[in-house]
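Notes from hallway chat w/ T.B., transcribed later so I don't forget. T.B. wanted the structure written out for a chain they're using in a teaching module, and asked if we could keep both sequence and structure tokens in one place. Agreed to drop them here.
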Amino acid sequence: MNSLIRRKLVENAYRLKLSHKGFCTGAAAKVSSSNGAQPSNDHVGQQKSSNKSEPYDIAIVGGGMVGMALACSLARMPMTKHLKVAIIDSNPALSNGLSIKKEDPPDARVSTVTPATISLFKDIGAWKYVEQHRHAYFDQMQVWDYTGLGYTRYDARDVHKEYLGCVVENKVLQSSLLSCMQDTDFQKTIYPSRLSSMALNPSILSMGVKSTSSGLNERGNLAKLDLSDGNSLYAKLVVGADGSKSRVRELAGFKTTGWKYSQNAIICTVEHRAENRCAWQRFLPTGPIALLPIGDNFSNIVWTMNPEEATDRKLMVEDDFVKAVNYALDYGFGPHPKSSNFGSGGIFSWFKTDTTISADECFKVPPKVVKLASEKMVFPLSLMHANNYASKHVVLIGDAAHTVHPLAGQGVNLGFGDAFALSRIISEGIAVGTDIAEVNLLKKYEAERKTANVTMMAILDGFQRAYSVDFGPLNVLRAAAFHGAQYIPPLKRSIISYASGDQRLPIFS
């Protein structure tokens, strides 16, 4: 009897030891969903990963808007929703959730999303969450020059669209993508950490990974990622979505081409007495200033200028800064353009057979700013493009692959285009039995997106250079460009369509 009791005690102690060991060395723990009603399929990496843990199909480094868009798209597509995905980002909001209160003023960090991007968000079920928070559609946009020689007004009706775009706070976009992904059974693990090092084709003999039917344990078919918190994980494909200073791009050895502009941008939120429903952009001697509607009488300012001036503006008291903004958007630096300068009787009158200008086409003055509603933030501007987006095991998306001047608000839309294109190409590869880390498959993504990205980057860089020089003859040529866009309907329609996300050049159609 005593020997039986001793044996039972030893067995129970052994079971307890195993249970404790499994708890201490587990790589992930379940977290509850945001409403606490249902358990979430999210996992959060907490302790050091075991070398015997099963590898991931995809590791997304960077859980910002573009990285989350990729994860959400993968979660929604039939051919990719079964994939096992790790998301690596030190932002605690990914695991704790984003708190967005309606009464809070808008954050200064916003994005202007195009109709094409909105359509993609609707396809994956994320746009309905955006519409639950503050956002502002706009159907008109006015662009003009400080010299008073030219302006263009764009209207969504010119291309039979309901709107030209929608301005949304970045935190709303990210929260919406998180909410969308939580509605799926996607197998994802969130690691609240940073990427420290990455080894491509690590020795399988030293890995001790579990054997899987998908062949993930084949020699040279995995990448090893070491994280700053001591975790390590293995993945078949690593996606660098970690921004312009991408650690993935650096560790994978991707070379870049680019340059810094001698400009900084100030961004902030301002308030009006009435709601602003139009997007405004004026080109000034030192760079453009944009006034973008956010809703609830708020607008976002993106003001480009030289670094010294940016420092001075940031240090201004509120009253002086508001006066400077109104001066820059109204009568400062030069007169208002006159609608009849070139449209009737001038050298461009032949652009239109009917020179009668409707009220919607006339130049308008932007609404006055009455109050600063957020802190002022300053960041330097640059252009950067990775010479390659893809190699074996590694692919870049978003700002990790390219950064552009913000004058047209196209940067995040290019990133979203990358994310949705990559998820589609991965899905197509799986459908025909192709390895998702295969270079030939990833190069299809690179070829598709590089063309679109380089074209947009060249256009934006050309605009930046053309409007950074104050020279008489060049001013006249710029005015001609404005009025060409204003009074040649086919050209105006092509510009609107291209800026809206249609993948064709702004030429006559």
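Follow-up for T.B.: The first helix runs from residue 2 to 25. Might be a good example for the class.
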